[in-house]
């Protein structure tokens, strides 16, 4: 199994944990846990593969991803009550999952010969859409839309770091590492230190 596949499995597992934790906040049954976990874990990658017109969507080509997401859901179903703060755990696990997913999205697009604007978009799509779907379906305020938190911005910066490092050293592992570190670093700074992106400020039209 290559690096890209390992990272994809890791992002699926961690995203599935967040999905199941959100399901626990909604007090869903075990089937609901598994559904939300799979939606979260595979939503971004599914959108990526459809947009890139891959031969098969990744989890259809290899159902091990469904098994991994389901296992994470069952694990959370029996252990979520032991967590002191499920919301804080969701936020940090989500940050980790985004940091793993960004280099996966860029890597998949690169393997198909995509140009750099597509690499940027696929890094963001893979990292952000699953969590957005999770929060919308569970009637939670999407993490990506909370205030001006560095979320999509962190994913974009991570994808850009991947592209730049790959151009310099032509090493996919180093590029993936750079993407993960930049994404997680910005997201962690936003969570812990209150880093924010500049927001739109409305000014009344001049008379």
UniProtKB/TrEMBL annotation:
Subcellular location as annotated: Cell membrane
Major localization class: membrane
Keywords carried by this UniProt record: Cell membrane, Membrane, Transmembrane, Transmembrane helix
Domain Glycine transporter stretches: 6-80, 92-166
Domain of life: Bacteria
Lipid bilayer topology: Multi-pass membrane protein
One protein family per Pfam: Gly_transporter
Record has Transferase as a keyword: no
Transmembrane segments: 6-23, 30-51, 57-78, 90-112, 118-137, 149-168, 174-195
InterPro entries in alphabetical order: Gly_transporter
GO cellular component, one term: plasma membrane
Family: Belongs to the UPF0126 family.
Name of the protein: Glycine transporter domain-containing protein
Source organism per UniProt: Pontivivens insulae
């Amino acid at each position: 199994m290559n690096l890209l596949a390992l990272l994809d499995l890791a992002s699926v597992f961690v995203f599935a944990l967040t999905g199941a934790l959100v399901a626990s906040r909604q007090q869903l049954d075990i089937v609901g846990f598994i559904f939300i976990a799979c939606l979260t874990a595979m939503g971004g990658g599914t959108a990526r593969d459809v947009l890139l017109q891959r031969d098969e969507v990744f989890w259809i080509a290899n159902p091990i991803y469904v098994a991994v997401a389901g296992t994470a859901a069952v694990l959370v179903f029996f252990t979520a009550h032991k967590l002191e703060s499920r919301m804080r755990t969701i936020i940090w696990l989500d940050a980790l999952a985004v940091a793993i997913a960004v280099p996966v999205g860029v890597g998949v697009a690169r393997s198909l010969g995509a140009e750099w604007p597509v690499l940027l978009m696929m890094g963001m799509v893979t990292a952000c859409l699953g969590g957005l779907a999770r929060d919308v379906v569970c009637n939670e305020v999407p993490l990506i839309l909370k205030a001006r938190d560095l979320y999509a911005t962190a994913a974009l910066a991570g994808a850009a770091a991947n592209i730049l490092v790959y151009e310099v050293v032509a090493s996919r592992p180093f590029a993936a590492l750079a993407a993960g570190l930049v994404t997680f670093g910005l997201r962690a700074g936003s969570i812990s230190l209150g880093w924010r992106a500049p927001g739109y400020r409305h000014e009344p039209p001049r008379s």
